[in-house]
């Protein structure tokens, strides 16, 4: 779907040139999609500024469809329904001169960024780099062009418009979010550059478009090297970043900031790095005791070269967790899971894969002198703390039944199914949201008006996600909840709207549900903004469906 852009005004040319009394001339190809062109020229010392049509005639005041506005250091020329072909803007004067040509056109370069391929299993995609790309290193680039989808030539240009190098990008990448996304592996230039794209329209007319703004690369990389899944409230947490220098020997100083005032300090404050050398910088944060669970905050670390000028940054978004949270056992497994025990022998059984907010957890039951061991994998969803867990393990041993998946949180086996199978099972609208991370239209879900007592389950695998008591009216047009059933969802960072957001999905099948925002009611202060087509409602007087196998 083509984005709505005010007036559909887009760049055909952008240039910055230093004049010393000479004349600079630039060609502007006008294609059959252009409805109006606007030329602006800004100069320190204004000289002659002229615009010529494809046939060579001069654009002048008083001609039909022509508007010319002059100020002390600038001129703006507007031509309605311009003739197709190559127009020429000529300027003379002294000092820095800025030239921009824009047009009302539905054919434009909508997006350009450097990206990295990342995401959870079966939901991999391209996400923007948080800092600048590294000069001299192969990077993945993404561009979105509306109006033409083949026969394109991309190029790096200097700020004055001269060519640095062409590069290739192709559409149809399976990990791209839209068909108009072009993906390419390129080595960006070390100098400041612009992005140009040239091609021909469907009628064979040459066109040129420019992505607004100059781009730059960096010789230093700032990369998150330790990402705590959560920050316990009331306890200091360290977040480590790896700093790599790809340029000449340099000394880097660091500045950090966060969005909630949780920052304690950065160590070290500066480091010296040789070529291709890496070192670690640590940021310490402390969320005060009592900070609501789920509170999100972002940390930005900026590295600046002091000997050779270069800079880059990294951003990480973290969530506050409660201290000493019960371990999550959704990925736990017994080792061994089935055993045969000779009489009067003792065999240890461990449970691995359970995780707390700060460390891995291993639970073991050993020295069982029993004639038979039965492994039970399914159980109800009540919470259990560590003291209750040990007590229940003792009871289990006494009754000859061992529960290796100790019920600290809801446990279940992950459901992994190819997307083509989900597509056959689910309605098209549900599949688009759950496994293509689409978003339904606000106000379209019948669940907005659902007031009955019951349970909201995942529309794909039937895992219970929300109780009706957790639902509230947010006024957003999407079903909203202030809390979720324990262990029912998993979270990840999402940059699809450029700014980081927290996406959440079903912990069992991975189906996308929605995003979490910090504008919900008490006691959590959170809003789980859910797509209605990703849920099914089961009234309290009906039996919950079996989990889909």
Structure description:
The chain is mainly beta. The chain has five domains: 6-104, Jelly Rolls, CATH 2.60.120.380; 108-215, Immunoglobulin-like (Sandwich); 220-321, Immunoglobulins (Immunoglobulin-like); 333-402, no CATH class; 419-539, Peptide methionine sulfoxide reductase (Metal Binding Protein, Guanine Nucleotide Exchange Factor, Chain A), CATH 2.170.150. Helix content is 5%, strand content 46%. The chain contains three helices and 37 strands. It has helices at 386-398, 419-425, 428-434; strands spanning 9-30, 36-52, 66-70, 74-80, 85-104, 108-118, 125-128, 139-146, 153-157, 163-167, 170-171, 181-186, 193-200, 206-215, 220-224, 231-232, 237-245, 250-258, 263-267, 270-273, 277-285, 296-305, 311-321, 333-335, 349-355, 360-365, 374-375, 401-402, 454-458, 464-467, 471-472, 480-481, 489-494, 501-506, 512-517, 527-530, 535-539. It has a six-stranded antiparallel sheet with strand order 31-32-36-35-34-33, with no helix packed on it. Strands 1-5-2-4-3 form a five-stranded antiparallel sheet, with no helix packed on it. Strands 7-6-8-12-11 form a five-stranded antiparallel sheet, with no helix packed on it. Strand 9 (153-157) and strand 10 (163-167) form a beta hairpin. The chain is globular, with a radius of gyration of 30 Å.
């Amino acid at each position: 779907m083509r984005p709505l852009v005010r007036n559909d005004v887009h760049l055909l040319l952008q240039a910055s040139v230093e004049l010393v009394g000479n004349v600079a001339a630039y060609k502007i190809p006008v294609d059959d999609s252009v409805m109006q062109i606007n030329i602006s020229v800004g100069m320190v010392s204004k000289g002659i500024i002229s615009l010529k049509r494809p046939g060579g005639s001069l654009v002048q005041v008083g001609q039909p469809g022509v508007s010319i506005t002059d100020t002390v250091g600038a001129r703006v020329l507007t031509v309605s329904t311009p003739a197709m072909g190559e127009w020429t803007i000529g300027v003379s004067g002294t000092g820095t001169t800025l030239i921009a040509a824009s047009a009302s056109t539905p054919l434009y370069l909508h997006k350009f960024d450097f990206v990295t391929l990342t995401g959870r299993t079966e939901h991999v995609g391209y996400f923007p780099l948080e800092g600048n790309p590294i000069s001299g290193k192969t990077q993945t680039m993404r561009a979105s062009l509306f109006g033409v989808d083949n026969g394109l030539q991309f190029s790096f240009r200097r700020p004055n418009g001269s060519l640095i190098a062409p590069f290739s990008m192709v559409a149809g990448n399976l990990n791209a979010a839209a068909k108009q996304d072009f993906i390419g592996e390129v080595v960006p230039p070390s100098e400041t550059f612009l992005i140009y794209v040239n091609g021909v329209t469907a009628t064979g007319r040459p066109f040129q478009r420019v992505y607004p703004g100059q781009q730059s690369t960096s010789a230093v990389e700032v990369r998150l090297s330790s990402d705590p899944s959560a920050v316990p409230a009331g306890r200091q947490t360290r977040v480590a970043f790896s700093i790599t220098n790809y340029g000449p020997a340099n000394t880097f100083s660091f500045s950090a900031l966060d969005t909630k005032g949780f920052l304690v300090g950065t160590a070290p404050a500066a480091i010296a790095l040789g070529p291709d050398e890496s070192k670690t910088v640590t940021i310490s944060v402390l969320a005060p005791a009592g900070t609501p669970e789920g509170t999100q905050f972002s940390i930005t670390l900026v590295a600046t070269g002091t000997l050779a000028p270069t800079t880059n940054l990294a951003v990480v978004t973290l969530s506050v967790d409660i201290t000493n949270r019960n371990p999550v056992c959704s990925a736990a497994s017994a080792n061994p899971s089935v055993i045969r025990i000779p009489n009067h022998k003792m065999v240890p059984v461990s449970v691995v894969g359970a995780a707390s907010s700060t460390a891995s957890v291993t639970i073991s039951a050993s020295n069982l002198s029993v004639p038979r061991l039965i492994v039970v994998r399914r159980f109800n969803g009540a919470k259990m703390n560590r003291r209750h867990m040990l007590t229940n393990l003792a009871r289990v041993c006494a009754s000859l039944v061992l529960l290796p998946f100790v019920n600290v949180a809801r446990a279940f086996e992950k459901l992994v199914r190819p997307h083509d199978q989900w597509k056959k099972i689910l309605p098209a609208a549900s599949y688009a949201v759950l496994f293509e991370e689409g978003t339904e239209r606000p106000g379209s879900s019948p669940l907005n008006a659902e007031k009955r007592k019951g349970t909201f389950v995942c529309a794909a695998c039937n895992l219970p996600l929300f109780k009706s008591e957790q639902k509230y009216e947010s006024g957003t047009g999407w079903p909203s909840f202030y809390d979720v059933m324990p262990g029912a969802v998993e979270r990840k960072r999402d940059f699809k709207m450029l700014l980081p957001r927290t996406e959440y999905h079903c912990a069992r099948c991975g189906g996308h549900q929605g995003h979490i925002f910090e504008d919900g009611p008490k006691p959590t202060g959170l809003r789980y903004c859910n797509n209605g087509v990703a849920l099914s409602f089961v009234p309290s007087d009906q039996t919950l469906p079996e989990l889909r196998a």
